[in-house]
Amino acid sequence: MKKRTDLPPLNWLKTFEAAARLLNFSAAGRELYLTQSAVSQQIRLLEHHLGEALFIREHRTVYLTNSGLAYLPVVQSAISNLQRNTSEIFSPLGKGRLVIEVNIAFSMMWLSPRLSRFCEQYPGLKLQLVHANWDNEFNRSPADISIMHGNGEWSGMQLHPLFTPELKPYCAPRLASQLSDPGDLLSLPLLEIVGNRQGWQEWFQQASVETANADILYHKTDNLAAGMSMGEAGLGVFLGYPDFFTDQLNSRKLLSPFDICLETEDNYYLAYPKGRPLSKSAAVFNEWLLSELGYV
């Protein structure tokens, strides 16, 4: 059989998916409302088109070849994406699904408490939040739109910065009462967010605090949401984005002992691939999110 690189007809692929999943041509025919002979014929046409056998046929039993085993998840993913995107584009907005890939801290500290307002505007729209923390954890699963944290150096992505890129110290009122000068921080436990490009050393330089001979106690965590919880509990002082903590400051769960801000390379970004139009649900989420943040 001569190998072909152009795409085979969709109905052949749907028939292959059913037959490969069920490992039974008759059962595949019943699922697709085809006769067993029609299923067999479409499988042979697909194999001829691809130039390679996909099934091993033994009496009344069929097995997938190595090529068939490798091809099945590819076909299933393609069909699933086609079904989902067809529904997303052509179905009424209220019956769609929105998959948001979002940084853990942003989800817990900002997005999740506000999502009820979004859902009130778009009742019936199904939400799915997929959480990630590090840059390399994003884009592992299909998502309509992403909210990422980092320096924004992600090729091929359309980006909109969401926060003012600066950090300042926060802590529980009990610890804030012990602070009158930035140098006093050296005697308290400090919470460090692993992965941030700027942190306490840069903040101390900004505040003109000498740290060379200081014996500083650091507690470390890999996300700001955990750092905030630790800070509220009085475990230490942490650096955070002011845009996150309006509610905590108003309720006095947290205080900012010093109004000294450190400009940071990192920020939170609304992100999606360049050149790919947003789905209906992603477009309205994009507009809602920027409106909530005061950009529109």
Please characterize this protein's 3D structure.
There is one protein chain. The protein is α/β, with parallel strands linked by helices and 296 residues long. The chain folds into 3 domains: 10-90, Orthogonal Bundle (Arc Repressor Mutant, subunit A); 94-162 and 267-292, D-Maltodextrin-Binding Protein, domain 2; 166-263, Periplasmic binding protein-like II (D-Maltodextrin-Binding Protein, domain 2, 3-Layer(aba) Sandwich), CATH 3.40.190.10. It has 10 helices and 12 strands. It has helices at residues 10-22, 25-32, 36-50, 66-90, 104-121, 173-176, 200-206, 224-232, 246-250, 280-292; strands at residues 55-58, 61-64, 97-103, 126-132, 145-150, 157-161, 166-170, 190-193, 218-221, 237-240, 262-263, 267-273. The strands form 3 sheets. It has a 5-stranded mixed beta sheet. Helix 7 links the parallel strand 8 and strand 9. Belongs to the LysR transcriptional regulatory family. Residues 8-65 form the HTH lysR-type domain.
Secondary structure topology:
Elements lengths: L9 H13 L2 H8 L3 H15 L4 E4 L2 E4 L1 H25 L6 E7 H18 L4 E7 L12 E6 L6 E5 L4 E5 L2 H4 L13 E4 L6 H7 L11 E4 L2 H9 L4 E4 L5 H5 L11 E2 L3 E7 L6 H13 L4
Parallel strand pairs: 3-4, 3-5, 8-9, 8-10
Antiparallel strand pairs: 1-2, 5-12, 6-12, 7-10, 7-11
Helix pairs in contact: 1-2, 1-3, 1-4, 2-3
